[in-house]
Design goal:
four-stranded antiparallel sheet, 6 strands
Length: about 300
């Protein structure tokens, strides 16, 4: 049984130990010998906090720090590291670094940092899209850019028993106004909730966007879900194109993110295929059962496929 830590001071030291590790493991882990570091930001009871550890945190915060606040943020980071080092020293003095729970948390933090570092390496290998790729994406998605619209919709959530879903979907999509939609719902005696919403093209999944763009006022599109349906009825739409220069900047960023996401997925998949994974005990039963069922994302994609 794991040792119980009851004193507030010990709990604080425990949290600080793990937090300190998660923040500076990468910087510390590149060399255990303090003499390898040529710069020291501060010494706490003789132990050094390096400039590299300070810079690591500052780099991660750089995007959110105004230029005129750099010195303020740097002081705050240094003082935070000082507090962490003091608490970390106190934790080691109380032998918390030997506590089974602390050891497990430190190992978990180390594993997380290493995994993130490897994913960042995979992500850094992604190349920028060419101007031709950006142009092709722009031309193939007019409803997002040159023909982008702002939509005002009525959203109706409808209870749909599985045995009636297809038939009810057909009836609802055949209506030509919100009044006729209400008539169908009353005639079918189904529960429903209605609200109005305004959305832009980029807030709509691509598979649904083309349907909305082609929808005339008063007409509806129905998305089936388990035991229910989501009915979107067009109130009106307004053309609001994105200028080509701005659109192409957005497309370039989108394509980079998409490539990074694919690179990470393929990288993890390749590593899994090369690894010998043996689930033990009840976890073997849980994971084997999950492997035989469709993944949530796959199931959702299959349900929405035309």
């Amino acid at each position: 049984m794991l040792m119980q830590i009851s004193l507030v001071a010990r709990r604080s030291a425990l949290a600080a130990t793990v937090l300190c590790l998660s923040l500076v493991t990468v910087a510390c882990g590149k060399g255990g010998d303090k003499k390898a570091s040529s710069q020291v930001a501060v010494k706490v009871n003789g132990d050094e906090v390096s400039v590299h550890q300070v810079d690591l945190i500052l780099r991660r915060q750089a995007a959110n720090v105004p230029a005129n606040q750099q010195d303020v943020v740097t002081r705050r980071v240094v003082e935070t590291l000082v507090d962490q080092e003091i608490l970390s020293q106190a934790a080691r003095k109380d032998k918390l670094d030997q506590d089974p729970q602390v050891v497990q948390m430190m190992e978990a933090a180390k594993r997380d940092v290493l995994a993130r570092a490897y994913l960042e390496r995979l992500s850094d290998k992604v190349t920028e899209p060419s101007s031709d790729e950006v142009d092709r994406y722009y031309d193939s998605h007019p409803n997002l850019f040159s023909q982008r619209r702002l939509y005002s919709l009525q959203e109706t959530t409808v209870a749909m028993p599985a045995d009636k879903a297809a038939q009810l979907k057909e009836k609802l999509e055949a209506t030509t106004s919100m009044e006729k939609l209400d008539e169908v719902l009353k005639a079918e005696s189904v529960r429903s909730n209605t609200r109005q919403l305004s959305i832009s093209a980029e807030d709509v999944p691509l598979g649904l966007l083309d349907q909305l763009a082609a929808l005339k006022e008063g007409r509806s599109v129905v998305q089936l879900q388990e035991g229910s349906g989501r009915v979107l009825t067009m109130i009106n739409s307004k053309l609001s194109p994105i200028p080509p220069a701005q659109a192409k900047r957005l497309i370039a960023m989108h394509l980079v993110k998409e490539r990074q996401r694919n690179a990470l997925q393929q990288g993890v998949k390749a590593l899994r295929e090369q690894s010998k994974i043996e689930y033990q005990g009840r976890y073997a039963e849980l994971l084997n059962a999950a492997a035989s069922a469709p993944a949530p994302l796959e199931a959702a994609s299959a349900a929405s496929a035309p």
